[in-house]
């Protein structure tokens, strides 16, 4: 690629600075501090990013302003134009790449365009400055060679460094026969641990043996202890024997005595049982005796009792009679009561009958029909009769009243008639009134005429107009006012109008008055004539003497009386009617009354009643009859009851009579007899009971006696058996045996005691064998000796065992083995880790060398060829070629005369030339793929004119293929270039 | 038929050495060393607590055939504890503790039944009258190629039949050295329960009947992470229930901080990690912890701290006094290997370098100096494929770092 344009927004001292139309060989000239390094740095920054804050390169951040960054316009190898702009942003800045075809990108696109070239590499290959040359001076010998070789490969000495570093790292870690490197040390460690481990292992085997020997020892100890124990036991036994010896002797003696006592057989508690039985026997015998006596007594008593049998036989009947006595009594009472009642009833009957005054024997009443129907009829009749009675009274009353009223009324009427005026009188009065009337009328007329005349004369204009006078005046007044007013205001026409109207109004009103008074005077005459007439008539009228007022009064009164007379006459007529009515009613009443009386009598006849009774008191009679009938029925009933009672009483009395045949019964009345029977019965019963008692008792006693006898027998049996148990048949022999048994027991007891003691001591001995003698002192001593020996042996063994145990414990507890194992494995692991780390370096080294070899074989020759070319030019043919010693990885040069030199044999300047040639050759070779601009910072300050010139030749040659930027501050160099190609920095 | 209860555990690896832990403080180191023992004590505690009828240990009780005295005596003591409670133990030996090794015989108490190197049935009656037939087989040597399970023959006369086998369930030929079998083989035997051993990861291969790998009782390296333990099995005529109980005293765990968290300041990162530790501590078990995070989450200064292991040291400070302890074994970057290396492809040399690295298959040549060393080769083994990849990655990193950070 070529850089066509360069624009700085802000970088170092530059602000908004641009360089355009940059050419293939572009010289940038400027004195010191002109900014050459700045531009150099700028180009690299734009392409590869601003240097990071902590890097060694300067960032050239402007101090006076904030703009930072810029852009480059480049022409790519395919002639596309790209713009690369980088400004402040992230650490390395924010870059924008714009391609001609519109594609816009960032860092990625930039990387693509640059083909992966980075700053480092760029600097190494395409950037030339003083430093590189300085290195040539610094390195000597082998290093120089390698440096150059390294330079030839990638442009810097990195490879050499890397190779060195790797080697160092490898050796740091491991050397085949070394001791210091860590792997070697670790190896030693491993060996150590392994040996330790093996030793520990051995110990573990040893463990087995220790365990076995310990076990053996245990066994032996056990045996010894057993022996010891046995001896101890023996000693004890011996002591015991000695102690027990006397007792054993005694025992033997006792056994002998025992054998002497022959057959001894005695039951346990023999004596006690015997005595007990004897006691029992005694008590039983006593009881038997007493019971027998008692029994005899009872027999006696029984004989003495005497019982009447008849009573017993008839017990049932007697009991019944006795119990029935109260009943009997009550029956008697009942009968008496009934008879009383009957008497009473008969009395009543009689009474009632007499009351009724019956016309038949009283018994007949039974047959009367006294049903409800009849009763109802009677009641009905009676009520109707009552009703009629009432009616009678009413009628009588009414009759009286009417009669009275009638009388009164008639009287009144008469009075009134008397009072009435005769007819002529009346007419007279009437005429008076008429007169009066007329007179009044005439008066009235007279008055009126006068009035009218008055009026027509005396009424002036004033009276008639009186009413209208006021308003008229006001009106006229107002008109006047208006007229004056309008005059005042100079409305002359109006004033005239008002004024004229006033005059008109006055005239008008005045004329009206006149007219009226004229009319009035014509109507006077007829009136005056009438008046005269009237007055004449009046005169006639007043001649009558009678007071009209009075006459009126009298007339009125008379008319009143007339009215009243009429009224009274009517009343009288009414009363007479009523009277008529009453009479009729009376007749009817008579008829009804007679009928009822007849009916009542009829009914009374049925009952044989006297007529007056039946008519007056039939209901009561009826009731009485009913009562009588009831009484008669009651009588019947009572009679029947009495008969029944009689029957019952009789039967009882018969029974007594029967019984009397069998036994003697005292008493006269039934009552007395029965009581007597009762007493006797009780007595007999008592006797009977007594006897039974005694008999029972006797039975009891018999039973008892039998059982006692049985007991006695049993006791005897038991005794016999007891004796048998002791092999005796009598009490004496029995007791004798007892004695023997006692003695025997005593012996046995003693023997037992001894045997117990023997048991405790543990000695076993046959009862009747001859006894061996007790042990002597010396025997004991011997035993003690043995014991001592054993003890000491045991002690010794125990000590041994303890020590073995300790050893074993050590092994068991000592995690020594496991610790070592752990250590060993750990060491192995660490070794493996270290080996890994070493392997990385080893592999890297290997790869590096491989690559280098390959490179050397393939690529380097080409570069060297080119380098040789340049070298030749630069040295003006003094040197012909640069060669590679493959074996040693070094370069060497061949002079024109064929002599071979190694680089460090060259002069400084030649060395520089060699360096430069190689670098240029490298740049050129690499450019076959992609082209990048060379940035050359004035470093060829050492070259003389001629050399410089040669250099320029080389540069020009290079410039054919790629862009070269040449930064210089030496004016003198400018002459080598075209003027157009030079940019002067300000 | 009665209900029976038993514990099934395996792969005790008592006295197994712990590797991968350098520079542990003493106290912690001791605890780590003792962890397998403690774990087995816990198993015995469980047995007593649940009043089981017996305990099955399905092989690999010790780590190597040279079993340490200490381990054996410890086992004996624990078995005696079981004996006191009337609990029996049924043991088979596996490939690690096979019977062909040279080892000191320690007599086990009377309640212990060890299966011989021949398929055998041992009958057992529980306190409540339950009759059980147990079938087992101990390895006579390190490898057992045949399908031993075929020799197991069911013997009638028991309420329950339990098979014990230390082996590998797989068709894979590579594993044919450890009494291989398939689940169908086991099912064919018509047992009520299969107590397996050999695989350290807890797995239930089958239910009804249960075929179980209980896994080992205590993890010994970062790969054996998570809770470890044994199974308490309860069987009645209708149902079998298995309950897992943790027995490990030390828990191996790994945590990766998620990408969302970024850290600018040291305090931030430090406190976050401390909180992480404390959260782990709350599990009431000691923990050995690997923490990883991505480089992208940290600022460059913090990356430096992590790489120099300064931060790691801080995190480890004072843990030896803590109980339970949380020991940070490593603090690393998860994307170490995934960073895209960008050697300039255009430069001939770098291309060549990449190529040669990529194509490297045979590590013998580069590593020869060490691996053919007379003494060294006794102690190391050639790298696994994974490790080789790891090395390649590291080399690439090395190159890229070298060629890019200079200047």
UniProtKB/TrEMBL annotation, chain A:
InterPro entries: P-loop_NTPase (IPR027417), YhaN_AAA (IPR038734). Residues 1-201 form the YhaN AAA domain. Pfam families: AAA_27 (PF13514). Gene3D superfamilies: P-loop containing nucleotide triphosphate hydrolases (3.40.50.300). Residues 180-234, 274-398, 628-807 form a coiled coil. Keywords: Coiled coil, Membrane, Transmembrane, Transmembrane helix. The chain crosses the membrane at residues 473-489, 495-513. This is AAA family ATPase.
UniProtKB/TrEMBL annotation, chain B:
Keywords: Exonuclease, Hydrolase, Nuclease. Residues 4-201 form the Calcineurin-like phosphoesterase domain. It holds the Pfam family Metallophos. The keyword Transcription regulation does not apply. CDD domains: MPP_Mre11_N. One of its GO terms (molecular function) is exonuclease activity. This is DNA repair exonuclease. The lineage of its organism: Bacteria, Bacillati, Bacillota, Bacilli, Bacillales.
């Amino acid at each position: 690629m070529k850089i066509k344009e360069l624009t700085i927004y802000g970088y170092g001292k530059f602000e908004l600075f641009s360089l355009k139309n940059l050419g293939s060989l572009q010289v940038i000239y400027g004195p010191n501090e002109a900014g050459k390094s700045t531009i150099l740095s700028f180009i690299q920054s734009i392409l590869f990013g601003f240097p990071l804050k902590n890097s060694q390169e300067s960032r050239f951040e402007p101090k006076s302003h904030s703009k930072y960054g810029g852009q480059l316009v480049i022409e790519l190898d395919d002639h596309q134009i790209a713009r690369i702009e980088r400004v402040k942003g992230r650490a390395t800045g924010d870059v924008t790449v714009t391609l001609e075809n519109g594609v816009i990108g960032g860092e990625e696109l930039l990387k693509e365009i640059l083909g992966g070239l980075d700053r480092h590499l760029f600097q190494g290959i395409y950037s030339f400055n003083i430093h590189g040359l300085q290195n040539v001076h610094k390195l000597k010998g082998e290093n120089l060679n390698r440096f150059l070789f390294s330079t030839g490969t990638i442009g810097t000495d990195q490879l050499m460094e890397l190779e060195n570093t790797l080697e160092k790292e490898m050796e740091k870690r491991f050397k085949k026969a070394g001791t210091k490197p860590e792997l070697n040390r670790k190896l030693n460690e491993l060996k150590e641990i392994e040996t330790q481990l093996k030793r520990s292992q051995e110990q573990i085997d040893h463990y087995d043996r220790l365990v076995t020997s310990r076990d053996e020892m245990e066994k032996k100890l056990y045996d010894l202890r057993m022996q010891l124990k046995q001896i101890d036991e023996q000693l004890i036994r011996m002591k015991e024997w000695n102690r027990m010896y006397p007792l054993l002797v005694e025992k033997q003696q006792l056994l002998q005595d025992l054998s002497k006592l022959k057959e001894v057989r005695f039951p346990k508690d023999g004596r006690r049982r015997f005595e007990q039985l004897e006691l029992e026997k005694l008590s039983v015998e006593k009881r038997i005796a007493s019971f027998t006596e008692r029994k005899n007594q009872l027999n006696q008593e029984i004989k003495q009792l005497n019982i009447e049998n008849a009573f017993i036989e008839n017990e049932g009947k007697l009991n019944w009679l006795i119990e029935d006595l109260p009943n009997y009594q009550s029956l008697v009472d009942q009968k008496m009561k009934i008879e009383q009642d009957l008497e009473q009833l008969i009395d009543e009957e009689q009474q009632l009958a007499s009351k009724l005054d019956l016309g038949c024997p009283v018994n007949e009443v039974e047959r009367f029909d006294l049903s409800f129907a009849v009763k109802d009829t009677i009641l009905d009749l009676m009520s109707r009769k009552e009703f009629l009675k009432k009616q009678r009274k009413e009628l009588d009353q009414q009759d009286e009243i009417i009669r009275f009223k009638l009388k009164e009324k008639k009287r009144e009427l008469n009075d009134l008639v008397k009072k009435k005026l005769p007819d002529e009188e009346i007419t007279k009065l009437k005429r008076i009134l008429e007169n009066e009337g007329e007179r009044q009328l005439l008066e009235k007329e007279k008055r009126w005429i006068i009035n009218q005349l008055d009026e027509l004369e005396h009424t002036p204009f004033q009276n008639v107009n009186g009413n209208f006078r006021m308003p008229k005046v006001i009106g006229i007044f107002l008109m006047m006012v208006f007229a004056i007013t309008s005059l005042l205001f100079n409305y002359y026409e109006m004033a005239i109008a008002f004024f004229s109207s006033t005059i008109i109004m006055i005239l008008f009103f005045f004329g009206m008055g006149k007219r009226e008074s004229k009319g009035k005077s014509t109507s006077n005459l007829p009136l005056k004539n009438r008046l005269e007439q009237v007055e004449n008539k009046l005169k006639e009228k007043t001649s009558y003497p009678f007071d009209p007022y009075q006459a009126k009064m009298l007339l009125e009164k008379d008319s009143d009386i007339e009215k009243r007379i009429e009224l009274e006459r009517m009343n009288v007529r009414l009363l007479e009617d009523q009277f008529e009515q009453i009479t009729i009613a009376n007749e009817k009443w008579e008829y009804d009354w007679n009928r009822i009386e007849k009916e009542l009598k009829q009914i009374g006849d049925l009952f044989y009643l006297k007529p007056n009774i039946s008519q007056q008191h039939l209901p009561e009679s009826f009731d009485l009859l009913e009562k009588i009938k009831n009484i008669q029925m009651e009588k019947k009933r009572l009679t029947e009851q009495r008969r029944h009672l009689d029957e019952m009483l009789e039967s009882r009395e018969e029974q007594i009579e029967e019984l009397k045949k069998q036994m003697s019964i005292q008493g006269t009345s039934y009552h007395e007899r029965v009581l007597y029977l009762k007493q006797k019965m009780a007595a007999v019963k008592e006797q009977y009971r007594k006897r039974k008692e005694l008999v029972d008792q006797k039975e009891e006693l018999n039973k008892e006696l039998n059982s006692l006898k049985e007991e006695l027998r049993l006791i005897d049996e038991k005794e016999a058996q007891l004796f048998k148990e002791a092999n005796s048949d009598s009490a004496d022999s029995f007791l004798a045996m007892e004695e023997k048994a006692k003695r025997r027991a005593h012996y046995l007891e003693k023997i037992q005691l001894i045997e117990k003691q023997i048991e405790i001591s543990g000695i076993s001995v046959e009862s009747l064998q001859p006894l061996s003698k007790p042990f002597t002192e010396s025997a004991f001593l011997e035993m003690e000796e043995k014991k001592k020996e054993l003890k000491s042996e045991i002690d010794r063994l125990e000590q041994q065992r303890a020590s073995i145990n300790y050893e074993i414990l050590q092994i068991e507890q000592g995690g020594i083995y496991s610790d070592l194992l752990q250590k060993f494995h750990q060491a192995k692991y660490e070794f493996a880790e270290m080996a890994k780390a070493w392997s990385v370096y080893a592999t890297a080294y290997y790869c590096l060398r491989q690559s280098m070899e390959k490179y050397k074989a393939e690529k380097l020759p080409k570069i060297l060829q080119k380098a040789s070319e340049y070298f030749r030019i630069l040295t003006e043919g003094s040197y012909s070629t640069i060669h590679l010693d493959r074996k040693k990885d070094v370069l060497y040069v061949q002079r024109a005369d064929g002599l071979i030199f190694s680089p460090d044999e060259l002069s400084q300047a030649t060395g520089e030339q060699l360096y430069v040639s190689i670098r240029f050759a490298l740049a050129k070779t690499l450019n076959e793929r992609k082209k990048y601009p060379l940035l050359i910072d004035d470093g060829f300050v050492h070259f003389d004119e001629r050399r410089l010139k040669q250099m320029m030749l080389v540069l020009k040659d290079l410039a054919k293929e790629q862009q070269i930027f040449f930064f210089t501050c030496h004016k003198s160099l400018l002459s080598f270039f075209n003027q157009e190609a030079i940019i002067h920095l300000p | 038929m009665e209900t029976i209860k038993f514990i099934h555990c395996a792969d005790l690896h008592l006295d197994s050495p712990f590797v991968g832990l350098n520079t542990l403080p003493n106290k912690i180191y001791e605890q780590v060393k003792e962890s397998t023992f403690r774990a087995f004590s816990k198993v015995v505690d469980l047995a007593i607590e649940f009043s089981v009828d017996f305990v099955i240990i399905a092989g690999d009780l010790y780590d190597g055939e040279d079993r340490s005295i200490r381990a054996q005596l410890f086992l004996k003591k624990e078995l005696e504890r079981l004996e006191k409670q009337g609990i029996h133990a049924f043991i088979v030996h596996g490939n690690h503790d096979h019977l062909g090794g040279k080892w000191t015989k320690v007599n086990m108490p009377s309640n212990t039944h060890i299966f011989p190197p021949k398929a055998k049935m041992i009958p057992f009656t529980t306190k409540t009258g339950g009759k059980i037939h147990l079938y087992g087989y101990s390895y006579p040597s390190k490898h057992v190629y045949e399908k031993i399970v075929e020799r197991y023959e069911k013997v009638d006369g028991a309420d329950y039949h339990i098979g014990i086998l230390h082996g590998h369930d797989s068709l894979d030929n590579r594993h044919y050295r450890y009494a291989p079998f398939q689940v169908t083989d086991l099912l064919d035997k018509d047992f009520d329960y299969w107590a397996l051993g050999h695989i350290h990861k807890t797995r239930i291969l089958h239910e009804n009947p249960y075929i179980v790998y209980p896994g080992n009782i205590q993890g010994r390296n970062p790969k054996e992470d998570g809770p470890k333990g044994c199974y308490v099995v309860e069987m009645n005529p209708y149902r079998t229930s298995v309950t897992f109980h943790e027995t490990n005293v030390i828990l191996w765990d790994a945590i990766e901080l998620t990408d969302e968290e970024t850290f600018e300041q040291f305090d931030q990162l430090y406190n976050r990690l401390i909180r992480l530790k404390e959260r782990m501590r709350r599990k009431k078990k000691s923990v050995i912890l690997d923490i990883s995070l991505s480089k992208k989450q940290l600022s460059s200064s913090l990356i430096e701290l992590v790489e120099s292991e300064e931060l790691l040291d801080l995190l480890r400070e004072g843990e030896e006094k803590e109980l339970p302890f949380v020991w940070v074994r490593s603090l690393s970057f998860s994307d170490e290997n995934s960073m895209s290396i960008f050697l300039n492809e255009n430069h001939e040399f770098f291309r060549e370098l990449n190529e040669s690295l990529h194509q490297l298959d045979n590590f013998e040549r580069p590593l020869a100096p060490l691996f053919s060393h007379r003494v060294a080769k006794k102690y190391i083994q050639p790298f696994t494929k994974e490790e080789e990849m790891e090395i390649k990655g590291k080399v690439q990193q090395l190159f890229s770092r070298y060629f890019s950070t200079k200047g």
